Structures are given as C-alpha cells and as structure tokens.
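Researcher: Going back to the complex we discussed earlier. I've cleaned up the inputs and rechecked each line, so this should be the final set. Can you rerun the prediction on the complete assembly and write out the structure?
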Amino acid sequence: MRRYLVLYLYFLRFSFSRAMQFRFDFFFKVAMDVLYYATNMAFFTILFDHTSMLGRWNLDEVYVFVCTFLFIDAVHMAVFANNLEALPGFVRRGDLDYYLVRPVSSLFFLSVRDFAANSFLNALIASGLLVWSILHLDQAPSPSALAWFVVMLFAGSLVCFLVRLAFVIPVFWLQSNRGLSELSFALDHLSERPHHVYTGAVRMLLVTVLPLAFFSSMPAAVVLDGPSASVLGHTALVVLGTVVFVGWFWRRAVRAYGSASS
Amino acid sequence: MSLRLFAMVIVGEAHKLLSYRADFWINAVLVFFVEFGVAYYVWSAVFDHTEATTIGGFTRDGMITYYVIALLLGKLVLGHPRDFTIASDIYEGGLTRYLIYPVSYFWFKYAEHLGVLIPAVVRLALCGCVAMVVFADTPKLEVTPIHLAEGVVSLAVATLLHFLILFVLESVAFWADNTWTLIVSFNFSASLLGGLLLPLELFPARLEPLLDALPFRHLVHAPITVVLGQTTTAAWAYDLASALGWCAGLAILARVMWRRGTHRYTGVGI
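Model: Rerun complete. Updated structure for the full complex:
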C-alpha cells in the first residue's frame, strides 16, 4: 500500500511540474471549466424563472445538486479523465505492453498516472461553490447529513470513474471506441439533471445497473433530504456491484489484449 | 478548387465516417434518444409542477417539438469539434502538404467539414421519421415549401458560419500551444446562447440585446424558428443578412490570420 502511495506522489509531482511548463494553457483550461460551471448554473437559473420546483427540489436545492455534480466532475477530470482518454491509444498502438509488465497493478497505473493539475484548481473552485450552495440553503443540513455527504462524494467519484472506464474498456475488442465514447458523453447528460425528474424504468436504471444518479443526484439527496439507512445501503450495494463488474470486465479485456496486433 | 474535387472530398470524408457502422448507429440513434430523453423528462417535470399551459410561448407539445428539431439541427450544424483538424495540421506540420497542393486549404477543409455533416443528415432523416411516428399525437408541423426553402438556406448559412468560427479559433494555433480549450469554450457558449439547451424565448428580456448581438443564435435557434414557422419572411431575411454579415467579417478575419499565420509557420511540427 505504501508503495502505491509513494508512486502516486511521484505522479503528482510530475504532473504539476509538467503543467507549470505550459502556464498559458494551464490557465486557459481553468477558464474553460469556469465557463462550463457558469453554463450549468445559468441553465438552471433560467429554468427556474419559469418554475419553482424541479422534481422535488427548489432552486437553492438544485444549486446544491449542480455544485455536487461540478465537484465530482472536477475530481474526475483531475484524477482520472486524462488517463481514460489515453487508454484507447495505448491499446491500439500496443503501448499497453509497458504497463502490463510493471510490478504494480496495471489498472492503478493506467488510471491515475496523469493528474490534471488545472482540474485540481477547478475542483477547489467547485468545492467553494458547493460550500456556498450548502450555506445558501434555508435549512442547514445536520452534521450527520454532512458527514454522510462527504462519504457519498467519494462513492460518487468512484462510481463516476468506474462507469466511464466501462465505456472505454470495449476498445480492447473494437477497432474504434468513438461511438461508445459519444454514447458515454451523451449518457452523462442524464446525470446532469436530478434523478427525481425521471420516472419508471429510466429512474430504476439510473440508480441500479447504469448508476449515473450516483454521480451527483444521490449524494445531493443525502445532504438535502437527510441520510437514510435504505439510501446508504443501496449506495454500498451499487458501489460494490460496480467495482466487481468493472474489475471483472478489465481482467477479461487484458486477457483479450493482443499487443500491437490488437 | 474544382467543384468535382470539392464533391469528392465531401464524399470521401462521409465515407470514412460511415465505414465505422457501429459508431454511426450508436451516434445516430442512441445518442439522439438519450439527449432527447433528458430534455423530455426535465420539461415534463416542469410542466407537471406548474399550472401554466405555456412556458415562454411553448406548450408541452411545442416544447417537445422544439427539442426534437433543436437536437437534430444542432448536430447537423455543430457536428463534432473532434472532426476539425486545422489546429493539428498546424501543430504536427501536416499543413505543409496542403501548402504545396494546387488547391485552396480553406475550401478543402470546408469540403471535409461538409462531409463530416453527412452522417448528421442521415441521422436527421432517420430520427426525424421515428420522432414523427412516436410523437404522432403532437400538433403536426405545417412545413410549407417557403418554410422549407428558408430553412435550408438558414441551415446552409449556419454551417458556413460555424465553419468560419472554428476556422478562426483553430487558426490561433499559429500563435498558441492549445486551441482545444477555445473550441470547447465556444461549444459551451453556443449550446446555451444558441438555443440548444434552452429556447432563447425563455431567457430574461434584459438579455435579448446581448443574444441579438452575438452570432450564436444564427447557429441553432434561427433555423429552428424558420422550420417551426415562427418567423415571417421579412424577419428571416433580416436574420439571414445578419448571419451573412458575421460570415463576411469572420471570412476577412480568417484570411488575415491565415496570411499572417502561414508566414510564421515553420512546418516542423511539435
């Protein structure tokens, strides 16, 4: 475990020193993400000019939802996104060989090798927005709701990474994963709206086999509606199920990998 | 550049994209229904809660129709930013071969851009037909030949405007290391201020002058209003003139940037 921690600290050092070599680019990326945050906030602000509720939440509560989404997205962008984007290229070119023979978990190495320093700054901005949105609520959440919310943020970040990884893994068998990456990008839109707005089978799907509601809506529900044993238990099951499935999928994919000829 | 070569580049680019059939079907069908589903559920929740029968002048059915058209036309006009390769040509030195080709780089790239949009045309036809069957109960669009003609012209100008904006933004690659962030930022702005995320009728009235002053509404919102029959021929002509004015301004800027940029271009790649 210590070996992995030391290795990760090296990854962080390399990533920050590389980011600082391209400072103009660094701050441009920060500005781009801030524009993304503004777009999301503006969407809901304009929408609430025409309604007082969306699903079960009012505007202040939806701000908490949006900021939760932005925070988890920023964490994903900082820790995992660059690595997931690079993976298809490694598989196609056969560069994966170099990672498979190293004496550490290939999944760990390939998932966290490149840390996006600019997104780390965005995660700080998003966390500031999240604190602001919680302080802005009419009724302050209880300490236990806040504590469970922090746990749900970790769970949401993990599920977000695993689901997006599951859409990248088919590149081991397909010539191009462009279609799947487009689909994954489109499915992300489902997670950008509170899960209460969906009904029937779609909502059921989003909280079980395609757990996009855990990217932000379920964590926000814990801080807004209060933690309940059923929601927390359900979250634990979903996290466990996703970890087991994606772990199995990854092992199958690595077995199918045929180096540069794949 | 001859018309024949122009057509060949369009067909070649479209053929390249359509050769990945799984990607095409996922992109053409699944992505549309997912994006539409999100809008459908959000607006159903809004209309279920509010007692008003119209929001921003749209009934529930009108809102559904708006999003069907917005998503189909939006994809047709905006395509996908990854399909644009001008910046990578500059970074990687690939521009060199175009400089010695006896064709205009601008028109060659425009032909490629139109080729990339061909799958979106197929998607428009497929999903449009399916949507008409699924939402058969919603009021039928009364598309007159005049609306259709005006809509086609608006779409053509919108694709040209989009290409010119991207050409200018990607030409920044002659001077800067990374233009990807500019393109993504443009897409965020175009989605919101162009009417893809929300109809512009829902924006506060105080923002109208800003929306009118920017080019984004010509990309998605203007063609939609034409197809929905929400505009008069005089208003359409005024909008079209405004969009063409943007195109002219951007074409001049693109030409200036190209001339200055190619003088700086070294061709060594990164």
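Model: Worth noting: Chain A has eleven helices and no strands.
Researcher: Good, that matches what I expected from the previous run.
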